[in-house]
Amino acid sequence: MHFVTNAPILVRISLYLSIFCTIIAMDDPNYYAYQYNSIGTKPKKIHVLDSTLREGEQHPGVTFSNKQRIQIAWMLDYFGVDQIEISPVVSSDHKEATKTIIKQGLRADIVAHVRALKEDVDVALDCDATWMATYLGMSDIHLKDKLRITREEALRRAVETVEYAKSHGLKMRFTMEDASRAEPEFLIKMCKAIEEVGVDRISIPDTVGIMRPNGMYNLVKAVHDQIKTPLDVHCHNDIGFALANAFAGCDAGAEQIHTTIDGIGERTGIPALAETAVALTYLYKSPNNFRLDMLMDLSRLIEQYTNIVPYDSKPVVGITAYKHKAGTHLAAILRNPAAYEPIEPRIVGNRRRIVFGELAGKNGAAYLMSLLGLDQNDEHAKAVAAGLKNLRMGDLLEIPLDDRLEKKIINDTQIKVKPGK
Ligand SMILES: [Zn+2]
């Protein structure tokens, strides 16, 4: 009876809801994509540890000065990462940098990364660290050919290191190096043993980048099912799956992703901070306070300090990430940039660029003419487009769009091609 009385109201509510959703869908071009993305998952907080100062410095040819290390730490903190990793045991310079960065009292945790040895834990303590991280190879190849110890010895060493660090009041993360190639039962045994002695976080790395996303999901889930300690994922990019694997690990229960600015690191590196932060914000709807508009500046800073120029088409920070060239794309972009852009370039500190040349087409030509103050109509625009094509000189002109030109693109009715006479 009650239900029957309320039925018209329910029908009305569902009608209003569907109208509301349609309005949102019309307003947000990504609406349906986000709907697919969210099926079966709820947004959750995923943290970011940036390891530019540790993993990044392991990139061939990269070394920072202490001034640079301190500046990078400040900028990462201001950007909003949760933890910043640095290794104080590499050199006396690194130790000095670690000490100084810890003294800054930044909002992010500063994680002193050391080997699983008591004397290294002492170095972290000497730096006044609150957080430290250590690692030990878990796979048979690492145990046999790198460390030359048995599984039992590794277990003892890991437990002793955690006990030692915890007895000195440190918070600590333990990295199960080469976890993706370790014997599964031994890996779980190791995680349980260090959990018992109070480890604060456990990192599950794919050290050689051999996993596919589903494999990483299964690996992290196997550990997560047995362990309560919060998990990190540290995925290498040897086959190009680092970012996808890191997120697959989070889908399986991990709560923190390791990144570096521009993804620099050993060999082919790890997930780039820019891609991770944008994916967390827009694709995963993970709550955060990232200052995404710093991403280009962070990338430029690292480029300046390392001389490693990000490749043109690098997502988010690449020079062509927001460059539009083909005539059909240009025509759409001139009406509404969202037609070919997932998010606004200004959000990540990048800039939209348009390229005029043989692919510009009629609309591109008309826009170029309006920029030059030339009178345009359909026939003139067609003639200019044909002229650009006939020159066979590829891209002739590239225009970065400042605010004034952006407004012109969106609002200027002048660029609309008038019908020819
Ligand atoms: Zn690594």
Q: What would you say the CATH architecture of the largest domain is?
A: Alpha-Beta Barrel
What is the residue-mean pLDDT, rounded to a whole number?
90
Low-confidence stretches: 417-421
Coarse morphology:
globular
Strand order of the largest sheet: 1-2-3-4-5-6-7-8
Tally of individual domains? 2
Ions, cofactors and other bound molecules = zinc ion
Summarize the biggest pleated sheet: 8 strands, parallel, barrel
- Helical segment count: 16
Describe the secondary structure blueprint for this structure.
Layout: H1 2-27, H2 31-38, E1 47-50, H3 66-79, E2 83-86, H4 92-103, E3 109-115, H5 118-126, E4 131-137, H6 140-147, H7 151-167, E5 171-177, H8 184-196, E6 201-206, H9 213-224, E7 231-235, H10 242-251, E8 256-259, H11 273-283, H12 295-306, E9 323-324, H13 327-335, E10 353-357, H14 361-371, H15 378-391, E11 395-400, H16 403-411
Parallel strand pairs: 1-2, 1-8, 2-3, 3-4, 4-5, 5-6, 6-7, 7-8, 9-10
Antiparallel strand pairs: 10-11
The chain binds zinc ion.
What does this structure look like?
This protein is α/β, with parallel strands linked by helices and 421 residues long. The protein folds into 2 domains: 47-306, TIM Barrel; 323-415, no CATH class. The chain has 16 helices and 11 strands. The chain has helices spanning 2-27, 31-38, 66-79, 92-103, 118-126, 140-147, 151-167, 184-196, 213-224, 242-251, 273-283, 295-306, 327-335, 361-371, 378-391, 403-411, and strands spanning 47-50, 83-86, 109-115, 131-137, 171-177, 201-206, 231-235, 256-259, 323-324, 353-357, 395-400. An 8-stranded parallel beta barrel has the order 1-2-3-4-5-6-7-8, surrounded by 9 helices. Helix 3 (66-79) packs parallel to helix 4 (92-103), helix 9 runs parallel beside helix 10 (242-251) and helix 14 (361-371) crosses helix 15 (378-391). The protein is globular. Bound molecules: zinc ion.
